[in-house]
Write a structure and sequence with these properties.
This protein is an alpha+beta fold and 266 residues long. It has 2 domains: 150 residues, no CATH class; 67 residues, no CATH class. 42% of the residues lie in helices and 21% in strands. It contains 9 helices and 11 strands. A 4-stranded antiparallel β-sheet has the order 1-4-5-6. Strand 7 and strand 8 form a beta hairpin. The longest helix has 20 residues. The radius of gyration is 29 Å and the shape is elongated.
Length: 266
């Protein structure tokens, strides 16, 4: 291999590594509890492939959070559709709303209302459609029954973000999480999606929680102390996770002791 070829291959490798590099920062402040279990520091906050991790915990998943392109399939009119049908019939109702969603999804800009009304007026059981207010209509069927209903609005279709918008949201969440932890944030997270966070740079609130989870107490007594702390308003998922999964942790206690001693020395 000549020198020029070697330099070119090295340059291309650097480009590839740059493209697939990730953002990561190690943080030793703040408190993280996952499913009721204290997560030891350091906290490696990592941004990679539209996802933000705290150590191995998936904190933010862009693939799920960002709206995806919606593809709504056209639907076939049911056999029950006739001039004597009524929208109160569950089969007809489902067809009407599915078709309205499809019509709205393919409508040209500015024609979403017009196209939906045109579809409704073409139904064999509809006598009249009165568009009395923006996306609201009055539908009169052949029997004279009048039904007020709303049409499908643009808000029903979340447009996918551009790559620039996605990166902005990811970087904002990544930077916000780092700043929060550096500022002493305490975060209770669960794999099921529940979350609670508050600022506790001195560890005072965490100390109260740890004290309430004294192993000599019953779960009922622990719950009472946790609720009396006013940190938790109800015995929800976070409290249940703490009751079921929390175990005393040497590093956590050492960190709380250091914070307490530093306050005493001030």
């Amino acid at each position: 291999m000549d020198l020029l070829s070697f330099k070119m291959k090295t340059f291309m490798l650097l480009i590839v590594l740059t493209c697939f590099s990730l953002h990561s920062e190690e943080i030793n402040s703040g408190f993280i509890f996952i499913d009721g279990v204290y997560e030891k520091t350091p906290y490696n906050v990592t941004l990679k492939d539209k996802k933000i991790y705290i150590n191995n915990f998936l904190y933010f998943d862009g693939d799920k959070q960002f709206p995806q392109e919606q593809i709504i399939q056209n639907c076939i009119a049911p056999d029950e559709l006739s001039s004597s049908s009524t929208i109160e019939d569950s089969v007809i109702e489902k067809y009407v709303w599915d078709k309205l969603s499809y019509v709205a999804s393919i409508a040209e800009p500015g024609k979403m209302i017009e196209d939906q009304i045109e579809f409704l007026r073409g139904l064999p059981f509809v006598a009249n459609v009165d568009n009395y207010s923006s996306y609201k209509i009055k539908l009169t069927d052949n029997s004279g029954v009048v039904l007020k209903m709303g049409l499908i609005t643009p808000r029903s279709f979340r447009q996918p973000y551009t790559e620039e918008e996605e990166n902005e949201i990811l970087n904002r969440n990544y930077s916000g999480l780092k700043e929060a932890l550096l500022g002493g944030s305490c975060r209770f997270l669960s794999k099921g999606g529940s979350a609670l966070s508050f600022r506790d740079p001195k560890g005072e609130m965490v100390s109260i929680i740890v004290s309430a989870l004294d192993t000599t107490l019953t779960n009922e007594e622990k719950t009472q102390k946790l609720l009396e702390s006013k940190i938790f308003s109800t015995p929800g998922v976070i409290v249940k996770d703490l009751l079921n999964n929390f175990v005393p942790n040497e590093q956590l206690q050492q960190r709380l002791d250091v914070l307490k001693n530093s306050q005493n020395n001030e």
